[in-house]
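Complex 298.
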Amino acid sequence: MKKISALLLAAVLSMGLLTACGDSETAAEAGNEAAQAEDTQAQDDVAAESTQTDAEVEADAEADVAGAETAALADGVLTVGTNAEFPPFEYVDDNGEPDGFDIALIKAIGEKLGVEVEVENMEFASLVSSIGSKIDVAIAGMTVTEERQQSVDFSDAYYEAVQYVILPEGSEIATAQDLEGKTIGVQLGTTGDFIATDDIADTTVQQYNKGVDAVNDLINGRVDCVIIDKNPALVFASKFEGQLVALDGAQFDFGTEEYAIALPKGDADLAEKINAALAEIKADGTFDELVQTYIEGE
Ligand code: GLN
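Predicted structure with glutamine bound:
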């Protein structure tokens, strides 16, 4: 699961430091494999953790070689990070367990891959940086963005989304221009946050760890609106029917977004396996069933 930079490893080896530690065989093997790894991969991993056993270092060095088998599935468990505060994609069910469309989807993928799926519930803003250390992959209604692509790879997209604007019933906000200068509630580190912070002039952005907290502050009059993805917006607004409305972001010129599973950078084998499983799930009707169960049947 953990990564060490092939480049870093190669550099350390060339300085002879590992050899000096008396672990020349493992280190040399790992070094040979590391040297074959692509430069870009190596650089991407430079910032990653390096507190690993020699066995892990070797396993990871193998996984980084193009065409090699992924280390992420080797223990028979796919550890998946999510933020279970984003219904209907992920939420905590009545038994305290993470459930939702994404959770069902990743479990179906795990079944196709013959591995157990273990879900770790964490803050949304921590997901990307936890891939490759605390978690193998993340599924969290996560939009593919160029910025995230600098640290992680993404699976094929599985859902199209757009940001919505939740407003108090009767609000006069109706266009992108109307949002200027407003106090906007968002979930920290999300695309809604980026739009409110970067794309709309003179806003005061209130960031929350949970979208539902932003919505509660909208009800309490502490923010003028909340920008959040379509499906959660519809779920949250429907909880306050008569008090809140959710408007399509297209009306505010927000572009469409695509959700995908975030993967460790450069692990081509894992990406291929997950994409193949996703394709099968789409082809055999499972995907549509999940959409019906979790999203359209709400
Ligand atoms: N789709 C949004 C993003 O990727 C929000 C995801 C979420 O809050 N779980 O930033």
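The longest helix spans residues 268-283.
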